[in-house]
Amino acid sequence: MDREEARKRIEELREKINYHNYRYYVLDQPEISDYEYDMLMRELIELEEKYPEFKTPDSPSQRVGGEPLDEFEPFTHIVPMLSLANAFTAEEIKDFDRRVKEAVGEVEYVVEPKIDGLSVELVYENGIFTVGSTRGDGIVGENVTPNLKTIKSIPLRLKDSVNLVVRGEVFMPKASFAKLNEERAERGESLFANPRNAAAGSVRQLDPKVTAKRDLDIFIFNLQRIEGRDFKTHGGSLRIFERTGI
């Protein structure tokens, strides 16, 4: 295999692995066995080691890597991550509906599940995941990009070469939370109080290799910004997720 053949094969492997990641982690509809997936990843890693000039940060082989950090760098959000108000009673919901209609007239609502985890912002430039950050104070958060790259349901490269910003909630499935606490108890370590605390603590590890072991997932629920497009409804903006592969 010459250099050009290696480059083409690396690109082919990346496309295949990204496709199967999406089928498995987002759609929950795998098309190949774990063994077949592992063989694709092994071939990619071997080729990138042999031809390091073709290794790029958006490669699926680069989800876990790098040395532990001393601290997280601050990151100023492109779009402020404002907090959401809560409603606990039917009267509070009716009051919210009244205030919305007084402001904008008749509306249709999008109803989504409330997932308790850690809010994050993902920035894509030319379709490549470049920065992931925590909410922080809503204006400035912490750059936790290496840790978020370990979450396999976060695409490192989109289907389209677009510039966009999305917001999501990183969470730990209950079964994974129970398993993690069981393992910590066996080692005599303190237990996490709930899945939310476990997710937040896992994302804020200075060593991404620790984060990678925590079986985290993400629910992306909001398109903050996309270059060259303007959506009038939230429902309309969500349809961009399927087109881009988020």
UniProtKB/TrEMBL annotation:
Give any Gene Ontology cellular component: cytosol
Example of a GO MF term: DNA ligase (NAD+) activity
Biological processes annotated in GO: DNA repair; DNA replication
| Keywords, sorted A to Z | DNA damage, DNA repair, DNA replication, Ligase, Magnesium, Metal-binding, NAD, Zinc
Cytoplasm recorded as keyword: no
* UniProt domain NAD-dependent DNA ligase N-terminal: residue ranges: 5-246
- The protein's superkingdom reads Bacteria
Q: Does the keyword Kinase apply?
A: no
Q: Name one Pfam family in it.
A: Nlig-Ia
- Protein name (database record): NAD-dependent DNA ligase
